[in-house]
Amino acid sequence: MPTPNEAEKQHTGPEEADRPPSMSSHDTAPRPAPSRNPCCLCWCCCCSCSWNQERRRTWKASHDSKLQPLPSCEVCTPPSPEEVQSWAQSFDKLMHSPAGRSVFRAFLRTEYSEENMLFWLACEELKTEANQHVVDEKARLIYEDYVSILSPKEVSLDSRVREGINRKMQEPSAHTFDDAQLQIYTLMHRDSYPRFLSSPTYRALLLPERPQSSEA
């Protein structure tokens, strides 16, 4: 005949078998599957995780050298008088001209809005990339430099475009910023371009160069 303790064990045994095993202090919860980026899904520059810092250090040098200075072809080739005159015909002609972009960017710098051209150029460069790893890194840098509200070079984008970028940044592509690039292009066209055409900078380029008089 079973003792009272044995009877209690027999009675509670099936119930204990139905219960999930308790987690001891040495057990750990199952880890979720790693996401594409090891830190988080935050794409703003406030993320201070080691992954973000390491990647930013790695790409900072190439980013500064590729996105910040004016390309040499836009600096060294002086525009012809005919080309300068064509810039007044349409904003598209100005932006399709390397010399035109260079002069217009210098004008934007005087208006403290050079970041608009820098952002547009960065988007153009991004669209030429085919390597997904490079696309991911450049997209993050563009976001941090021109889209993040914490950046001193933040460009003016409406909430709809910003929300679209935030969604696309989960899986960046070469065309993640297309809507934003078009919005900034339109802003420069409507706001800065008319002032550029009436600026001393542009008018000076329209004046023919005076031939240097030879000394007797």
Describe this structure in words.
Keywords: Signal transduction inhibitor. Residues 90-206 form the RGS domain. Residues 1-19 have a biased composition (Basic and acidic residues). Residues 1-29 are annotated as: Disordered. Helix 6 runs antiparallel to helix 7 and helix 7 crosses helix 10. This protein has a domain at 80-206: Regulator of G-protein Signalling 4, domain 2 (Orthogonal Bundle). Residues 11-52 and 58-74 have low confidence and may be disordered. The chain starts with a helix and ends in a 10-residue tail after the last helix. With 216 residues, it is mainly alpha-helical. It is built from 11 helices and no strands.
